[in-house]
């Protein structure tokens, strides 16, 4: 009989590429991961890994087993959700990941609604970059997370994660001009490697120019203050632009950011997901009504 815990390690190895990365993500030692994978090979009766020096790759049998592992782990997730549904009302810890804008604009109201309507739930919030959400969900570090997608940027969640849409926001330029008219301005963009950075640079490329980036800032409140002081222009989403400082005039652009609720495949029937989704939608409606721009 194949051990699902070992299958999870094999799946993570197929995604992360090294035993050290798997160990780091799942808080094991590299030696423990190697031992568990060796035990899985004995259970399977076939070599699942090819080791060349420090490099480890999956054999054809290993790749086949990973494909089946996805289905096995999804079924186990569904079973756990079904068991949780037999309890009287949603209870227990609910680990929620969120990017900073959503954490600030949506989660305070969301937590208040959950406390009011479902006091048995124990929500716990962690800020996380959307690019890291899939790994955190697969590792069991989070139950649910808010992620965002931008125009010009491919989705960041993988096939082991399901999503449902929550919010679509317009992006705004922090000046009363078009994107093309801001081509010679200094630009404020997020840290390289983030989705926000990629979106801003590619939006400028689509408009036919390379932005002259002078500041890398991830916090949108700071970005708006820098723009108000005349230190550059930037792109900001609706949730971040609810109360722009004096000196900033926002111009809506035909570029969107989409916020999604993400969770492991099989978790969709968990009794905690429905009340969380309802509370998030209530919070989103309040936040967008307060921060709408024409």
From TrEMBL:
<protein>
    <submittedName>
        <fullName>LysR family transcriptional regulator</fullName>
    </submittedName>
</protein>
<dbReference type="Pfam" id="PF00126">
    <property type="entry name" value="HTH_1"/>
</dbReference>
<dbReference type="Pfam" id="PF03466">
    <property type="entry name" value="LysR_substrate"/>
</dbReference>
<keyword id="KW-0805">Transcription regulation</keyword>
<keyword id="KW-0804">Transcription</keyword>
<dbReference type="InterPro" id="IPR000847">
    <property type="entry name" value="LysR_HTH_N"/>
</dbReference>
<dbReference type="InterPro" id="IPR036388">
    <property type="entry name" value="WH-like_DNA-bd_sf"/>
</dbReference>
<feature type="domain" description="HTH lysR-type">
    <location>
        <begin position="2"/>
        <end position="59"/>
    </location>
</feature>
<dbReference type="InterPro" id="IPR036390">
    <property type="entry name" value="WH_DNA-bd_sf"/>
</dbReference>
<comment type="similarity">
    <text>Belongs to the LysR transcriptional regulatory family.</text>
</comment>
<keyword id="KW-0238">DNA-binding</keyword>
<dbReference type="InterPro" id="IPR005119">
    <property type="entry name" value="LysR_subst-bd"/>
</dbReference>
